[in-house]
Structure formats: C-alpha cells, structure tokens
C-alpha cells in the first residue's frame, strides 16, 4: 500500500468512512506501539500512549489536513506524546533501576548450561542497549529512534520534532555518538 | 586515540541518504581511500546492527479491545459521550436547543409545582453545570430567556 493511499484513507475517514480508519489503525498500531515502547521500555506506558495517539487521529476526523505524509504526521503525534510523558516521568526515572528484575539468575545457578548462558548473554545485551537508549535526552532519543527504526528522513523528523533540519542532523549525530560511547565498552565490535 | 578526518561528518549524511547523487559519489570515493573514515563508517553500521537486536514487541492481547471500547465511548455508546463524540459535530447543533428547551420546561414545571418555594434549589449555577455537561453553552440566549422568565415570575 503506497503512502499516498494513507492520506486518501484519512480523508475518507474524515468524510465518515470508518473502515478507512480501521485500515490505518491496523497498518500502524504495531509500529506506534514499538516506537513508544523503545522510548520508555515499559509496555504499559507504550500501550497507553499508543492508544492516545490513535484516539487523537480518530478525533481529528474531518479536521485533518494533509500537511505531510500520513505516517510522518502520525509519528509526530506519537513523538509529542512521548516527549510530554518523558517530562512527567523524568524524576521517577532517576530512581528506577534497570537491574531490578533480572540479572541475579546467573548467580543463582551454580553451573548454567551453555544454552542458558547464551540466553542470559542475549538478555544482558538487550538490557545494555535498552539503558543506553534510555540515557539519551528526549529529542535525541526521538530523532535516533525515528531514523534508525522507522527510516524517516531529516526533513520528516524536522517536521515531527518542530526543529530545523540542521538541528535534526546534530541531534542524530550526538545521539549516535552517545550510544556508541555507552555501548563500545560493552560490545566492542567496532563501535 | 582514534584518528579522525574532517570529512567524517559527511558520512552520516551518506548513511542517512541525505546527499544528492553527486555529493554521495564524492563521499564514497573518499571513503575508499581514507582509513579513519572507513573506521567511522564501520562503527556507524555496527551501531545500527546492535540496535536492531532489540526485537519488535507484539501488539498486547487486550490492546485492540480496549482501543475500540474507547472509540465506542467517544462515539456515543456511553450515555454522555454522545454529546462529545464524533457524531457530536453533526447532532449537537440540532439537539442543543431542544435539550435546552426540555431543561427550561422542566425548570418551569418544577417552579410551578412548588409555587416558587423550591425554585431557588434548582439554582442557576446548577442549570449552568447541566448545560455545560451537554455542551449547550452556545445557546446562552435561551438560558438568559430562562433567567428573565424566572425574574418576571419572582417580580410578579
Ligand atoms: Zn576521511
């Protein structure tokens, strides 16, 4: 399905065609959930925010005017909600330890099998990637996620963040640099 | 200490497809013969590979049900949401004066029944709240008529 069709669908929804909305919802819900999830690494928060994103699209209805590709606009709504949520959550995050739930399993098993070791290693890696992303300031985080996981262009990200293209370049550059610095100690691998 | 090259900032633009073809070709050409840039290029790609290790989350089982319930609620399958939902734009205009008239009639009825004793209880602020709930504040002229009517009744 081409991206232009998404705008058509949204316009049709604006004229009262509910199935057009359903189709957009089905196409994008998983992407939006994953975007919000990688912002906070908390499925509950991701669910809540994603629902709000689609409610806003639904409520926009006939007031929708295509000022960008539909997906660009959709992720703009998600980005604003995530940044807002981050502002609200910031002080909480200082006290949340990522190591709280797991990590100690290795110590509990006297002689873990190679399979278990591999699983644990995979989990450890993911946890480190997770905390590296979570350590990024909000706009850097948004810019890197939109670029690396969703393939938006600088121009689109500029629209989503309400920043100039050159600020977006700088945000992505600094964000990647941060991630490399945090992860190269753990991963090596030419980072 | 890693060696750096002043061209390396352009590598990000190449990676992110943000260069015109000609400029992209020049950077690729440079990349072939510059070791620090090759390191930087590998490092950027390694980062993308590492980031892709985070698997996609599946849509949580209750997600759709909860969402469509919210839509239903907004759309008027709840008692009050009818007046705030998607259909509201079309229906509010038609129903608001009717609703205001019903409220006015009810108010008048109560006031007549109680011979004015209890009309104070059904005070203006209560009416305002009620009207607010139903988003009929656009019809303030009707409300003002109602106030005027009560005023006249009190005077007489
Ligand atoms: Zn170079």
Give the gist of this structure.
The complex is a heterodimer of chains A (191) and B (156). Chain A is mostly helical and 191 residues long.
Key features of this structure:
heterodimer; A: 191 residues; mainly alpha; Rna Polymerase Sigma Factor, Chain: A; B: 156 residues; 2 domains; 7 helices; elongated; binds zinc ion
Total number of distinct structural domains of chain B = 2
Shape assignment of chain A: globular
Structure summary, number of beta strands of chain B:
0
What's the count of strands of chain A? Answer: 0
| SSE class of chain B | mainly alpha
Cofactors, ions and other ligands in the entry:
zinc ion
Oligomer category: heterodimer
Number of helices of chain B: 7
Strand content of chain B: under 5%
| Classification by helices and strands of chain A | mainly alpha
The CATH architecture category of the largest domain in chain A equals Orthogonal Bundle
Structure, explained:
The complex is a heterodimer of chains A (191) and B (156). Chain A has helices at 3-14, 18-40, 43-60, 70-93, 105-108, 114-134, 138-148, 154-161, 165-187. Chain A is mostly helical. Chain A has 2 domains: 1-93, Rna Polymerase Sigma Factor, Chain: A; 135-191, Winged helix-like DNA-binding domain superfamily/Winged helix DNA-binding domain (Arc Repressor Mutant, subunit A), CATH 1.10.10.10. In chain A, helix 2 runs parallel beside helix 4 (70-93) and helix 7 (138-148) packs across helix 9 (165-187). The longest helix of chain A is centred in the middle third of the chain and has 24 residues, at 70-93. Chain A is globular and about 65 Å long. The relative contact order of chain A is 0.10. Chain B folds into 2 domains: 1-54; 85-155. The longest helix of chain B is centred in the middle third of the chain and has 26 residues, at 88-113. Chain B is elongated and about 90 Å long. Chain B starts with 8 loop residues before the first helix and ends with a helix. The A-B interface holds A 25, 29-30, 33-34, 37-38, 43, 46-47, 50-51, 54-55, 58-59, 61-62, 125-126, 129-130, 133, 147-149, 153-154, 169, 172-173, 176, 179-180, 183, 187, 189-191 and B 9, 12-13, 16-18, 39, 42-44, 46-51, 53-54, 56-60, 63-64, 66-67, 70-71, 74, 86, 89. The structure holds zinc ion. Residues 5, 7-8, 30, 34, 36-37 of chain B line the site of zinc ion (ZN).
